[in-house]
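TL;DR need structure tokens for one chain.
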Amino acid sequence: MTRISGAPEPDLAVEVLLGNGSQQAMVTLERAMLSAGFEEERVINWLRTSFLERRGDGAVVELATRLIQAEPWPATLKHVLLEAMFDYRPEDWYPYDPEPPEPPATLDADAERARARLLEVAQAAGFLEAETAMPSETDANR
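>> reply
TL;DR here they are.
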């Protein structure tokens, strides 16, 4: 198994694993994020950049669902992950970045189904009110 905790460039490793999109890459990244002890700010950066930019990919949404369900993962990171998957606030998240990362304009079919499941999991875990409607990509990109 590839480990990113000892990688000289863990930020690059996250990008490569998310870009790969294979099941093995997602499992490797999940294990690393749950056990590696990265600084919270570093993980938040990954969620608001690499995850945000790929939230239209079903494999990434499925990974997000597993992370939300993971018991050892901090609630703070779960909230940031949900924001990255459903929201977009460049003025708040990137106040000094003239060209902030952007979410994809469209979702693939797998991502549509996976986002519905992620919303269910988030509601069941108490992160969202049950009556919360899933925002459309158009709403989330505003």
